Fold this protein.
Amino acid sequence: MSMPHDVFECGHTLEELSLYLDTGEFPDPPHLESCPECRSGLDSLRRLSAAGEELFANDLAAAGSGRDDWMKDILANLTLELRPGRSIPLHSDDPADTLSETEGSVIALVRSVADSLPGAVAGKVRLEGDVTVPGEPVAVHVDLAVLFGHPLMPRAASLRQDLATALARHTELNISAIDITVTDVIDAPREEL
Amino acid sequence: MSTSLHQAIMAVDGVTEVFPARNLWQRLPGRAASLLQRNNADADDSALVEVRDLGGRTEAAVRIGVSSDARTPEVVRAVAAAIRNHLSPADVSVKVTVVRIAPARGAAGV
């Protein structure tokens, strides 16, 4: 499967990260120690690869069968999301201090929680609203690809609760809604009789 | 001072990593300069904690990773307090940015 070539702010690409996971080769190995966006990208690719194996009993690279549009979409979204994004303020005890977290770190957190749902993989993740202003309502949108046959409604409710807990633990955002949309239902290949 | 300050930050519960205070694109001019001046090729362009004196006031900036088991806002405030305590009695403004929220290293590695 071809990988998106869009370049991150650090100058590297998802394709390079994928190659690193496959071969251990990377143009600038020390960079992987010091770049939080590339680290989050590697985390996501590992989870995606594991999900691909679970869903197709196959590996990520071999998933190019024409039935992998959902994975192409996820990879394209990953490229967009692996950026620092907006700065989300955190309350400070001292007015001279500036405390914040990047939007990219929060989106990676949301993605990791969603990916932990069995039989599902996060697609697009968005924070809608002005996250840079404390108290402004922010809606979280998560698109999911799920394996056919998994019970959706109870799992969506459980995921919504897990996301609310994680966001309350790691942000001071005023979360007004957590919208979960199943955008792809993946029909796993069946064995020929 | 930077090393001991780094240690003070890492000692805060919930901090998993300290990343270079500046993004790569912000460090590139320094890298280019050190390549042009070969005698300066080993210059440190990736300081983990940036401490500057701005007209009598000390400004400290750091980018950190926080454990997904911790509470990020509390960790960030504790880091700011640790930096302030470390640089005491200087007049300090602290900038702490969380750039990664993930399990502590060792659970996943690079």
